[in-house]
């Protein structure tokens, strides 16, 4: 995937508070991203007035964005909580900054293998100390609830325009595969 097209999903402040509404929308996007693996990337633009007020989805082509929008358009959480804006192309001559949106992993309780030593607790404390934003998620497979923390770092690698990358099923970068996205305002 190369981020050549994008659309913004504006999160309404009512009837749910924005963080809850954004989490519900990300759950819908995750389901759609799983149906088309590696084709869409998710960003939360920093220019947005309020946290969780805009979710930005990138794709290589307009047809991929159109297919995604057709897939999610009728989801109740989007009908009630969001406005999907018209897709736009990333300017060919874009020379601005690029960022990486990456999941901040916190091990599950089941992953704790050494009694008395909590890597999970340390990661949660680190995420809270860094004031990382998160989405409140619910697993469809086991019904468990968890927070999907994410962080943003500036991209400093090779030329991002020619880089082919594959986002995970959340639309985020992984530690082994960064997905640089343009910081378009």
How is this fold's topology laid out?
Layout: E1 5-11, H1 18-35, E2 40-43, E3 54-59, H2 62-72, H3 76-81, E4 82-84, E5 88-89, E6 98-104, H4 119-129, E7 134-138, E8 145-154, E9 180-182
Antiparallel strand pairs: 1-3, 1-4, 1-5, 2-3, 6-8, 6-9, 7-8
What distance separates the N and C termini? 21 Å
The CATH C-level class name: Alpha Beta
CATH fold-level topology: Alpha-Beta Plaits
Mean pLDDT: 88
Number of helices: 4
Give start-end ranges of low-pLDDT stretches. Answer: none
Which overall shape is indicated by the principal axes computed on the Cα atoms? globular
Domain module count = 1
Helix content: 10-25%
Q: Name the beta content range.
A: 25-35%
DSSP summary, beta strand count: 9
* Secondary-structure element order, N to C: EHEEHHEEEHEEE
Largest β sheet strand count, sense and barrel closure: 5 strands, antiparallel
Global Rg? 17 Å
CATH level-two architecture:
2-Layer Sandwich
Structural class: alpha+beta
